[in-house]
Amino acid sequence: MAISSSPIASPLGININTKLAASSSFPNLALFNLPSKPTNRISTIVLSSYRNGLTSEDKKALFEEYGLDPNQFPSQPSSSSPSLKTRRRKEIQNPGRGKQVREEDGEDKPQRTTHRLLQVLGGKAKRKKLLSPKGMDVRPMMEVVKGSAFDILQAAGGCPASLRPGRWLDLYSGTGSVGIEAISRGCSEVHFVEMDPWVVSNVLQPNLECTGFLDVSVIHTVRVESFLECAEQFVGQDSAFDFISVTPPYTQVDYGILMDQISKSPIVGEDTFIVVEYPLRTDMLDSCGCLVKINDRRFGRTHLAIYGPEWAQKKRKK
Length: 318
Fold this sequence. Notes:
One of its GO terms (molecular function) is methyltransferase activity. It holds the Pfam family Cons_hypoth95. The chain has two domains: 8-76, no CATH class; 114-317, Rossmann fold. 27% of the residues lie in helices and 22% in strands. It contains nine helices and 13 strands. An eight-stranded mixed beta sheet has the order 8-7-6-9-10-13-12-11.
């Protein structure tokens, strides 16, 4: 049985006849006849199946059956492959994706500089000016916070005028202002832990030299996490400190993990005092290993927690 209809005029100048023979090898395709008069423009014919797609070999055979050159008629682009316009749109939305962007050789990074805005608050180096980097890459402890911390420690140690002699560990030391304050007020030795070599050579070491505390200082240019993991290797078997200051960059540490690592480290002894500076909306535990929280104060958006032995807490309550 055959179905026929009147020819349909094509905009390409080709009469398409929908007469389909049941015996045809391509039952789902519309057959076409070439016009008697050749056209001046090049026509593009795209073949597609109504139901089942044709392979490239079937299309080639169909073109040859009607005496046409298959190379003159491109195949219909696959719907699964993105068009050129789509690819360009994605490249605009995701510039540089999958490409390596290399900085120009002649482009220099901004040079880091320092200024003298900090000072030692008490002790034998009182009013000595200290260097600090310009910008926010290093954030020293505010002087009001530092002064309050040392007042609490001196009172808890039973000597309000100065710190009891001992060893101090300054974690995330940066400018070294906390450790230098500790030496100025009576500590016999301070270990500074700072990972930035530029800060160590251009800020921390010059501050120790100008205060005259370089001989009683030890600088560890490592990450705090690495120092805590290998504390005995860095400071020897007698690694418990009398005082520890913790002033990390707020957004780059997890205080829960950090304090847990400190509490399990051999740097903490039964009589150790720990000073922790932390930001607003941070939950600090009431204890750190064998130590208890003896004070917690707020200075604007900055909080100061001090942990110490139980005897210091009882003395403070009296």
